[in-house]
Structures are given as structure tokens and as C-alpha cells.
Write a structure and sequence with these properties.
The chain is of the alpha+beta class. The chain has a single domain, classed as Gcn5-related N-acetyltransferase (GNAT) (Aminopeptidase, 3-Layer(aba) Sandwich). Helices cover about 25% and strands about 30% of the residues. The chain has five helices and eight strands. Strands 1-2-3-4-5-6-8-7 form an eight-stranded mixed beta sheet, sandwiched between helices. Strand 1 (about 10-15) and strand 2 (about 20-25) form a beta hairpin. The two termini are about 25 Å apart.
């Protein structure tokens, strides 16, 4: 089993005074991940997975939490809850077959929009992808999800059309120096969306 990347754990204080921790997900987060998904509105789940998802299956929960920290990387934003933690957001990528690009997804609890945690999660995810040597990060976004497109553009993503797909666009960010004029992610960017980039490789249940 892959070694847990403890060096990537970071604590942050938000502008409203609350403290959150951004850390790589663990297999032991399965119950917290299920609670996180269960508490999302139907619209948030649809914008993330691009299909209606009711009760998440055990297979999906295992897929989302049992990552290898290499080809599949995921960060969660957690807050203290009683004697434990509660997941209030997550971001993840999976490396594409070309080995040079990755598909990403990000999702925020409905009550935590516009707090800055999406920017913190994306900063961690983009940093991990850069350190992995990946050239580009990509995601599919529903055309109706204007908030996600604004958020992505604020992080330096380009919005591109998808041939023969009238419902979605592809957002693309070049990660390495010299590959494009993209800005570094701003952790304080708060134009957050109730849904996020998604797609099969970005964290939906495998076929």
C-alpha cells in the first residue's frame, strides 16, 4: 500500500476565523466521505458527476478514498467535529493514459461555498500535479455551470469547446513553466460553485 504523504498536510485559518485542514485523503475517511456526499444537495452532486447520484455505493466510496497518491491523488478539507473530523470539501485528479495530463474534480459542501476552501484545495492539487511532473490539468464542466467556469478561469484555466458535445466544455490549465501564460492559483479566490469539474477520470464510479 502506498505511503501516506503526511508532508502535504496543511492547516489554514479562513477569513471568517475558522480553522481548516487540507490533507490527502485516507482509506479511513470512508465514513466521512459518505457523510459528505450524503449531505450534498442533488444539484451539487449533478454538477460534479454530470448525472444524478443518489446514495453513493460502497464501490464508489472505496474508489474515492483508496487512492494511490500517484496516478490518483485526492485532498480533503476537514474541520473538527466532536472527537473527530468532518469533510467539507475535496479535490482530486487522475492521470490520463498519456502520462502527461490529468483530469480533475472539485466539490464543496453546500454550507461552505464562498469561504475560500475551494481555492485552498485547488492550490494543493495543482501543486501536487506540478510536483508529479504533469504538463496539463483538465476537467469537463457543464455549460450551465457558469460559476465553475469563472472559478476555473480565476485559477488560470482556459475554457475550450468539446466537439459534438453541446452540454459541456473542457477547462485546461498548463502546469509547467514555459507551457502557457497561466497564472498560479490564488488560495483566496472565493467565486466558488455549488458543483465543479467532473468526468469519469475525475472521480466518478469506475465502469
Amino acid at each position: 500500500m502506498a505511503e501516506y504523504p503526511a508532508g502535504l498536510v496543511r492547516e489554514h485559518r479562513l477569513s471568517d476565523g475558522r480553522t481548516v485542514t487540507i490533507r490527502p485523503i485516507r482509506a479511513e475517511d470512508a465514513a466521512r466521505e459518505r457523510a459528505f456526499l450524503d449531505e450534498l444537495s442533488g444539484e451539487s452532486r449533478y454538477l460534479r458527476f454530470h448525472r444524478w447520484v443518489n446514495a453513493p455505493s460502497e464501490r464508489l466510496i472505496r474508489f474515492l478514498t483508496e487512492v494511490d497518491y500517484d496516478r490518483h491523488m485526492a485532498f480533503v478539507c476537514v474541520v473538527a467535529a466532536g472527537d473527530g473530523e468532518r469533510v467539507v470539501g475535496e479535490a482530486r485528479y487522475q492521470i490520463n493514459p498519456d502520462g502527461r495530463s490529468c483530469e480533475f474534480g472539485v466539490m464543496i459542501a453546500d454550507a461552505w461555498h464562498k469561504t475560500g476552501i475551494a481555492g485552498l484545495l485547488m492550490a494543493a492539487l495543482i501543486g501536487a500535479a506540478r510536483d508529479r511532473g504533469l504538463a496539463t490539468m483538465e476537467g469537463l464542466v457543464l455549460r450551465s455551470n457558469a460559476a465553475m467556469m469563472r472559478f476555473a478561469q480565476g485559477l488560470g484555466f482556459e475554457v475550450r469547446s468539446v466537439p459534438e458535445d453541446l452540454t459541456r466544455v473542457r477547462i485546461v490549465k498548463n502546469l509547467q513553466p514555459g507551457t502557457g501564460p497561466h497564472a498560479a492559483p490564488d488560495p483566496d479566490f472565493r467565486a466558488e460553485t455549488p458543483g465543479a469539474a467532473g468526468g469519469k477520470r475525475a472521480g466518478t464510479e469506475p465502469a
